[in-house]
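Summary for the funding panel

The consortium committed to producing paired sequence-structure records for every protein in the target list. Below we show the first two records in order, beginning with the earlier of the two.
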Amino acid sequence: MNRMKNYRDLSSKDALSAGFQFEFYCQGCDFTWRSKFKPHRVGQITGWLSRLAFLFSDLSKAGRATGTVADASSRGAHDEAFLEAQAEAQRYFHKCPTCKDMFCGDCWNEDEGQCNNCLKQAQGRQPVGGSGGYGESADNVQRCPNCQVPSQGGRFCHECGFDMASTHKSCPSCGSVMPRAARFCTDCGHGF
């Protein structure tokens, strides 16, 4: 099974809450699917042992040894958790044979067996902004999704400065990647 590349690793390495979680996203819109958090018990136990080791100087060597064991088991457990999450995520995503990106059901044309972006390109209509079809209206005039002014071409709207090529933005507080239309960060709650 090939590894999907449309994911973010949300796993926690904190000793007391160690575990694995992954978020998979559509490469054409803002759809995401998040796997269930899978606790890493060996990492949690060794975390507790390491904290106890600081209380007793005789146990410091044992604390270092348990940390090494936790690191070794963590790699295998992480890969196993990823493969399980990926197997579940494949129910929600399709790999386009043309562009090789992953798309949700809304961005996928089941009849044609390819993503909507590649289908538009094949029909001679270039999608606006690379993905997601930003700015196309019923009259086929490219419009800015922010101010609705007809575009003069280029990456930025000549009226309001909106970046028409970008479908996502980074949270200034925590750095998480959010869909362009998001009003709040889903990780830290920061308002845009």
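The next record, for a separate protein in the list, is shown here:
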Amino acid sequence: MTVIIILLLVVIIGFFVFKNESVKNIFKPEQKYYTIDDEFNAKRKERQDEIDELLSKIGKNGLNDLTEKERKRLDELSKK
């Protein structure tokens, strides 16, 4: 029991001693985009990839191959 308490104290003291930028970066989520433009371009590319996938499916098997959900999504994406 004493060993567990000592180990716990060592961990807590170590956490406060080494509480600097490197420790903060471990717990901070990674930033996905650097600028607003990067975020906009990434989302635009995702939309375009989704449209391309749906159009490819139409090209292979015709419009009747799309489900109702896929048709609505294609209509939604084409309006943006």
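Regarding this second record: The CA atoms of residues 54 and 74 lie 7 Å apart. Residues 2-79 form one domain.
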